[in-house]
Amino acid sequence: MSLDQAKKIAAFKAVDEYVRDNTVVGVGSGSTVVYAVQRLAERVKTEGLKLVCIPTSFQARQLIIEGGLVLGDLEQHPRIHCAIDGADEVDADMVLIKGGGGCLLQEKIVASCADQLVVIADYTKNSKKLGEQYKKGIPIEVVPMAYVPIRNRVAAKYGGKLNLRMAVAKAGPVVTDNGNFILDWHFPEGGDFDWDAVNRDIMMIPGVVETGLFVKMASKAYFGLADGSVTERSA
């Protein structure tokens, strides 16, 4: 089974088990979420579910619209019953790295408003420790004018290397949906980090908008496997 198929079976199972009629659903960002929206649209059509979908990015907003789903926002729906989102990596303690697609801030805002955050991913995202499989680092969204001092402070305290994420189809750095830059922190391998403390510490640096560390947020994770089955992990 391909990775795309593994993503699809995880997404479908999560939507089937967590989404109920007359609820507000947070829609994450990334390649796996495409399948979650596909399944949401199928269930709305076949079962007549009444759902309101809250996006976490421009991409998620477009998926919701293209799927014919009801688009909402946090001003009208500040409480979300369930947010379904992907992850770049999930460790044994259900700590997530998110933000590989640059949408970490809005993803974390929506997740924080949800009664439950459900993670959908393929088996390559399932790790014992962060950094075991995902090698692109932990994203840190920063105010553009502050990226150099933030880069220096994180490296001085925790080690590793922080790279300003550069764009592919434009000259210069990636600019998020919120007008910010992203630093990708390649933390030292083999380090025994208290990710909750690290996250809180980095967030205290002036100019840091958000980190891609999601600690004590996810309720459940679904991983699609190569054999066509789905394994689950609960917080």
Protein architecture, described:
A hairpin with a 5-residue loop joins β12 and β13 (230-234). α1 (3-18) crosses α2 (31-47). The protein is α/β, with parallel strands linked by helices and 235 residues long. The strands form 3 sheets. It has a 6-stranded mixed beta sheet with strand order 2-1-3-6-12-13, with helices on both faces. A 4-stranded antiparallel beta sheet has the order 8-9-7-10. It is globular, with a radius of gyration of 17 Å. It has helices at residues 3-18, 31-47, 58-66, 104-112, 147-158, 195-203, and strands at residues 23-27, 51-55, 82-85, 89-90, 96-97, 117-122, 138-142, 161-164, 181-186, 208-211, 213-214, 218-224, 230-234. The chain has 6 helices and 13 strands. The protein has 2 domains: 3-125 and 215-226, Rossmann fold (3-Layer(aba) Sandwich), CATH 3.40.50.1360; 138-212, Alpha-Beta Plaits (2-Layer Sandwich), CATH 3.30.70.
Keywords for this entry:
Alpha-Beta Plaits; 24% strand; Rossmann fold; 2 domains; 13 strands; four-stranded antiparallel β-sheet; alpha/beta
Helix content: 25-40%
User: What is the helix/strand order?
Assistant: HEHEHEEEHEEHEEHEEEE
Q: How much β-strand is present in the residues?
A: 15-25%
Distance between the termini: 27 Å
Please outline the major beta sheet: 6 strands, mixed
The second-level CATH architecture of the largest domain is 3-Layer(aba) Sandwich
Which runs of at least 5 residues are low in confidence (pLDDT < 50)? none
H/I helix tally: 6
Give me the secondary-structure category: alpha/beta
Rg measurement, Å: 17 Å
Give, in spatial order, the strands making up the sheet with the most strands. Answer: 2-1-3-6-12-13
Estimate nothing, just give the exact number of structural domains.
Answer: 2
- Mind telling me the CATH class of the largest domain? Alpha Beta
- Roughly what is the average pLDDT, rounded to an integer? 98
| Overall morphology | globular
